[in-house]
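ok so i was messing around last nite and threw this chain in just to see what happens. nothing serious, just curious
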Amino acid sequence: MDRFAVIDLGSNTFHLLIVEKTTWGFKELYRKRVYTKLAMGGSRTILEESFSKGIACLQEFRNILNRFKIVNYRALGTAALRSADNGKEFISQAMDTANIKIDLIDGNQEATLIAKGVKAAIDISSHRYLIMDIGGGSVEFIILENGSVQWQQSFPIGLAILKALFHTEEPISVSELEQMKNFLDLELQPLKQQLTDGPKIKALIGASGSFEVVQAILDLSRWNQQTYKCHVLDFFKVQEMIMHKSTEERVQIKGLPIERVDLIVVALFLINYILKLTEAEEIIISDYALKEGVIAQKFDIS
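result:
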């Protein structure tokens, strides 16, 4: 029985995915997502409430791993654990209380695994694409050209950071939006340069997360088994619907999970910013990202 599990300790959510190897790839046995919000309030320190919730979540994940008789697994720590001053303490406590060993990966490793996951979901063997994976602490960008990674970089501009810096008023103010744009102009200079230098981007590929909210609100039909397609004009409709609403108004929006109500405004602004940079007319939303990239690497799936 060739079973394998991946735990993705994101800055906003923890994910557990358990799979079994098959002759054609892998079969999903179990999937769970828990909103822990490790990067709530920024990324300098994991707050006590989030710290406790994260450890409790890993204890629950350990019980599930035992139930499925999982021996082989990878638990990956990303931006929140990389940057928090108590990140090492969290990693130590995870081992002591949940018997889960966390591998801390850097932004470049994270981007590589995301690209591997997306390539397992979509045939992108031709043209030029930009992959975007939005986390709570960081955002990874990968440019693929004719199926090969041409460039990749992780930026410390995750949603928890943008929210803490630029979304303190409800609804978000024009002044805050302007400040966020200026911040992104500065932080994303390396990405801008890459997009200027090469051929036009055929489509923006959004790796799960906030892009799932767009899919849910628009109730998009599947394009293939692991992806959806969204025209940019439909995305702009979603942004227009949400951008200038207060927290109380956003809670009422169908398809918007309560756990994403606080971060969705800065998420949509960031996606819109990237769409304008790329001038892409289409978003491909991929169910596969980091976790599936780890699995593709483990089972040697190209």
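not much to say yet. The first helix runs from residue 48 to 67.
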